[in-house]
Amino acid sequence: MEMQDLLQRYFGTPDLANVDPATMPAGIDRMLVDLGLERDRGRRFALWTLLYMLDAAPDLDVAFKDETDREAARNMMDMIAAATPD
User: Record's superkingdom (predicted)?
Assistant: First the structure.
């Protein structure tokens, strides 16, 4: 899944800067529902990553049953933290 595709699907624009703040909660709610229904590991990870970047991701033990997926998510969190200026 491409990030722009996810943004278009859930927020109606491929650019996060153009998301109307009033529509953000509804888009996040739809993403959380889809995360719960998604069975493809890659798609689940993409949804979780965007939710994490929006500060709306569920805990790792809730989002991922497989330890490998949880470890990949931890690595993603570390990479995002390292790329974020203090």
Answer: Bacteria
